[in-house]
Structure formats: structure tokens, C-alpha cells
Amino acid sequence: MGAAPPVTTEILVGVDDSAPGGAAIEWASQRAEQLKCPLTLVHAVHDYWVSEKYAYYTRVMDSARGVLEKSAARVSEMAPSIRVQTRLHYGEPVRILSKLSETADMVVVGTDKTSAGGDGLLGSVSLQIAIMSVCPVAVIPVQYREDRSGVVVGVDGSPESLKAVTFAAAEADRIGQDLHAFYGGEVPGPWLLRDIPEADVASRAWEDGNAILTEAVSGLDGLYPDLRVHQRIESREAPATALIAAASKAQLLVIGSRGRGALKSIMMGKVGHNVLMRIPCPTVITRTATVQETPPHSL
Fold it and tell me: Which sign does the torsion angle of CA 269, 270, 272, 278 carry?
């Protein structure tokens, strides 16, 4: 094993008594146990429904506390050695978790967006949290427990993707997996392909990708002597499609973001958005910037 990964001091998990929420709890519990760090379970009740003047107020709040109690009991059963706490907030879940992310090391949320179908609300909420949070965000699909191997990281040469490589390399070394650095070349539109030979498209992708990947992984052998690093360049498929396929059997996919509110240029254009809406495996979105905001109200 090489250089030790940064110490994780707190992992936040968004819980909501759903199958995606359960997947997030399970994945976060395993990570917290491995890193020996505390886990905080967060449940948000939309403030539209939080008012004592309504007859159902007590039932809503009791149900919300029950979600947290049930989730905490599940964590204690799966990872009895870690410290777990619960936090009940009222407000919009995306705003709550994004604000709390300012003092956390990672936010973990679930999603059922593993294909073009799936529930639009769950998919969109997890996507918004991934966009708005300050710290790295792990988005966990419901079905992720099958036999998987390797850590895949999307690389495009930007500072954001280099941050993703740093995170991915530390993770791969920590869990004893190979690192797969992936570059997806831009695929010309059909009208351009009429005039540009396919061999030229592949050649340009290889030249650009080789230079970018070589720079991205340089120095990793010194930090992690035991880490096996593979480089892959794809020019036949759109970057998002190729990256999703490359990570379909991976333990983890890592992509970079420019920070809160700016999920831009993760490899090419809308690649990050497309990946998160068709998430192939547990996926971490790394960060390069932070923003301050008014704190959420806790119950």
C-alpha cells in the first residue's frame, strides 16, 4: 500500500426509507467501518408540511423520527464498531444536504437511475445533491452488490479530472483494486463523419488521450508502488456511453466537478449528467471549490 488517503472525519447519508436510501446506508456503513469514522444519518421533512396547526403534524414527525431510528439500527447491525448519529431537519432535502456538506468529508445518497427509465424524482434529487454539495458526493445505485472489480476514473485533462484521479488512486490503493484511467474522445456528428475518415478520428483521439492520460497518472507509481494503473482511450462511442460501459462492472467510478452549481465539462459537455442519470455503479463526484451559505434549520 502507498500513501495513506486523507482521513475522513464525517460521512453524511441522506435517508428516506426507500430502496435507494437503503443502498446508500449499506455502502456508507461499510466505508465508515473501513475508515473508522463516524456516520451521520440525515432526514429532511419538507417545511411545507411542518406546521403544528395541521392535525397530521405529529404523525409526520413521528414517521420521520422512525425513519432515522430504523436506519440507525440497521447501521449498528451492519457496522457495530462505528459511531452513528441522526439529524432531523425541515426544509428542502437538496438544500439541507448541500449546506451540511460544507463541514463533511463525503455525502452519500441513493438513486434508482441505472437506465434511461427509473423514477425521475429520485434520479433528479440525487443529481441535484451531486451538483450542489461542496464535498465529494457518492451516488449509490440500488443494485451494486454483484461481483465487481476495479476503480474507473474519467479523465479529460482539466484540473477537475486531475482531482478525480488523485481521489480515485487513493481509493484504489486503499481497497486493493486496479485503477483504470479512461479518456473518451469527442465523436463528430454524423454530418462531419461524412467528410472525416474514421481512422483520423481514432488517431486524433489516441494522440490527445495518450498525452492527457500520461500527464494525469504521472507520479502515481511513486505514491502507490503497488497500484496497477491501466489507461484506456475510446473514440468510437460518445464519452458518456463509453464511460458507463467501462464502469459497468467496476467497484467505483470517480468523476470530477468544478464545484457547487457547476457540474460542467466532466470529460465532454454533459457527460457527468448523463452518467449520473444512467449510473453504472457506486459513483463519486469530487470537488475543487466550496461556497458558503445560510445554515439549515435543525429540528
Answer: negative
Q: What is the pTM of this model?
A: 0.84
Residue appearing with cell numbers 480515485: 168
In a domain, residue 293? The reply is no
* Number of Cβ within a 10 Å radius of residue 136: 23
Measured in residues, the chain has a length of: 299
Question: pLDDT, tens digit, for every residue of 265-277?
Answer: 444 336 777 788 8
CA distances from 29 to 1, 20, 26, 71, 249 (A): 23, 14, 5, 11, 21
Torsions phi, psi for 87 (to 5 deg): -140, 125
Residue 146 lies in a domain: no
CB count within 10 Å of CB 50 equals 18
Q: 40 is in which domain, residue-wise?
A: 11-141
Shared-domain flag, residues 20 and 90? yes
Coil, helix or strand at residue 208: helix
CA 254 to chain centre: 7
Radius of gyration of the chain (CA): 20
Contact between 134 and 101 under an 8 Å Cβ cutoff? The reply is yes
How many domains does the chain fold into? Answer: 2
Dump pLDDT digits (tens) for 57-104. 888 889 999 999 999 999 999 999 999 999 999 888 899 999 999 999
Looking only at the bridges linking them, the beta strands covering 84-90 and 39-45 are parallel
Looking at the structure, tell me whether residues 33 and 89 fall in a common domain.
Answer: yes
